[in-house]
Amino acid sequence: MFCHLRPVRRLCLEKIFPHWFLSSRALSGAEAVNALRPFYFAVHPDFFGQHPREREVNENSLKRLSVYLENLQKPGSKSLKPTQLTFYVRETEQNSSEGQEPFSTSGFRAVKFTLHTRDLLSTVLYILNSCSLSVEHIQSLNTNVCSQPLKEAKRMPDRPIKWDKSYYYFTGFKDPHEDLEQVSRMETTLTSWLDNNGKSAVRKLKNSLPLRKELDRLKDDLSNQLQLSDIRWQRGWGIAHRCSQLHSLGRLAQQNLETLKNAKGCTIIFTDRSGMSAVGHVMLGTMDVHHHWTKLFERLPSYFDLRRRLMLLEDQISYLLGGIQVVYIEELQPVLTLEEYYSLLDVFYNRLLKNRIPFHPRSLRGLKMILNSDRYAPSLHELGHFNIPSLCDPTKLQWFILTKAQQARDNMKRKEELKVIENELIEASTKKFSLGKFYKEPSVSSIQMVDCCKRLLQQSLPYLRGMHLCISHFYSVMQDGDVCIPWNWKDGEAVK
């Protein structure tokens, strides 16, 4: 009855993967990374500087993908749990073809897929196909593939072939749709996820405690020695990585203590590049050598002077716009250096001078605005601040601000009220579950955090005792034991 089915099953696989896939050898870890270069180029967080939320989503998804790929290479990794990932994919030459989901006006689109593969090659192909990226370059990585060029491969029929369950029962073949269907039917709930991952999180957290104490000690010692306001990290590096960075800064302090004391009263941030941030924080690029750091500390007096000029420029813009305050919100804006932000303000100020807008003095006091380089129309954020493009038409800007001023004040009032409620719920949740630490990612809004905490307080979750809990957009146990759960976690009926 089923004597002719095997070749057809092979055609089903060829519809999903290139024709050479079935006769190819396994990829090594290095080859997989090389094959995924177009994907990394399309989703790399550094290209999403103007979009902090999308940048953070990609950073988190890349971390989870990295863990998946590592586990895939370990012995006995035949039954990995399905992993759901979301990426914001930039428009590139490879993925700008017709016949796919359109890109947003910002030049990217959201792509969601579930990984449930058993080897590196099929994983790489599935990721590239999911993001509408070419897979032709992979053939050159594989020495045992067929010599026929990909473009000459015979086109498979577009109609998908799905066999009856009896076929898999009689032949013993694994139904490729069964596991994914089961995943879609059984959504992860908070209690089930904690049952499966709680012990792992406890073990990782326990192992990280000595390093956490060492990190606190190093941070306190350097802060006191250099009289710093704070030491922070822009990215979610692990504890060991952070300790290494502080050790490096400590060695530099031993060699050039007087130079580093130029940072007195400042906040130091370990990030991707060295300089001074738009709000006056000292940025230390983690890839830079001590020589670059030393030069930065030597130049701090000139940065302080530029910072004073920048603040004066903000005041002048505020005066021309009826007293509205110009602010820079780190969580919502791209990371800019002091020079970049000053240039942005200067362009906007000169446009205002050429087109004087008749605002009544101090009529907009108490309102706030942020400035960006996007070439879009002005908008009002849900938190109450105005989002103003630096090249905005001054006439349109005046009309927009005047018509939205009262709504902005209402939004700011609601924001303050919501923040009070959020802090109370965070404190109550921390106390009820005896959490070691309770925090959220910047991309989680106060409304989402309030909703999450209210539902948490209705639960009995003994696994959370002593945990470091982060409210995020996904489930994950981080390398140092921090537990991430989505703000809209599900328990019983799905939360829409």
From TrEMBL:
Domain DUF4461: 188-490
Coiled-coil annotated spans: none
Stored Pfam families: DUF4460, DUF4461
Cellular-component GO terms for this entry: mitochondrion
Top-level taxon of origin: Eukaryota
Transmembrane intervals: none
Domain DUF4460: 24-133
Protein name (Swiss-Prot/TrEMBL): T cell activation inhibitor, mitochondrial
Organism, scientific name: Panthera leo
